[in-house]
């Protein structure tokens, strides 16, 4: 009986790990390097360590199997700590956080220069970049899997290029039928 219970538990654990898929996160510099060999857009999660909605985005959205599969297939995914201390090379310039304080690593810290350059004003913000690493759009705030799906698919298909008015976006938004489980 103990052996049967063990085998059943093993089967459950194995099936969970087979179905679980995680997003393949890379640095911005690595994503740009990968774009040269295989052009894809970039989805950059701009977060902070202290941000509650950022943690929810990680747990509820980025760990969603539909989201992870789609992002891994169609994007390079970048995690960027908007108040972190890393040095980042982007578009020929090096960005740092000269006012970073290590003792504030898990509390509010100074904004990273790249965050300022990208005009990040809220956390989380998901910044989408095109195949040349030029900014398409920042999407502010927590996004559920179906909400993020709209942007992932819209930017992937370049549909945003024709949505030049609020009315056109509203029509697109209303017609969009999400497939990701939320």
Describe this protein with a few key phrases.
182 residues, alpha/beta, Glutaredoxin, 5-stranded mixed sheet, two-stranded antiparallel sheet, 7 helices
Descriptive overview:
- By secondary structure, the protein is α/β, with parallel strands linked by helices.
- It has a single domain, classed as Glutaredoxin (3-Layer(aba) Sandwich), CATH 3.40.30.10.
- It is built from seven helices and seven strands, in the order αβαβααβββαββαα.
- The chain has a five-stranded mixed beta sheet with strand order 1-3-2-6-7, sandwiched between helices.
- A hairpin with a 5-residue loop joins β6 and β7.
- α4 packs parallel to α6.
- About 8% of the residues have low confidence.
Question: Summary?
Answer:
By secondary structure, this protein is an alpha/beta fold.
Our Rg estimate from Cα atoms comes to 19 Å
**Major sheet: size, sense and barrel closure?**
5 strands, mixed
Average pLDDT metric: 90
Unreliable stretches? 4-18
Shape: globular
């Amino acid at each position: 009986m103990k052996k049967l219970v063990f085998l059943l538990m093993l089967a459950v654990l194995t099936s969970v790990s087979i179905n679980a898929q995680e997003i393949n996160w890379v640095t911005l510099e690595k994503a740009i390097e990968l774009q040269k060999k295989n052009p894809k857009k970039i989805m950059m999660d701009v977060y902070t360590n202290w941000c509650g909605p950022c943690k929810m985005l990680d747990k509820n959205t980025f760990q969603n199997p539909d989201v992870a599969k789609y992002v891994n297939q169609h994007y390079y995914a970048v995690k960027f700590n908007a108040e972190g201390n890393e040095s980042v090379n982007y578009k020929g310039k090096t960005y740092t956080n000269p006012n970073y304080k290590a003792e504030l690593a898990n509390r509010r810290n100074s904004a990273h220069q790249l965050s300022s350059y990208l005009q990040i004003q809220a956390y989380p913000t998901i910044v989408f970049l095109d195949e040349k690493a030029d900014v398409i759009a920042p999407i502010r705030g927590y996004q559920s899997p179906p909400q993020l799906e709209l942007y992932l698919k819209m930017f992937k298909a370049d549909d945003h290029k024709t949505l030049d008015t609020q009315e056109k976006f509203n029509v697109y938004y209303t017609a969009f039928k999400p497939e990701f489980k939320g």
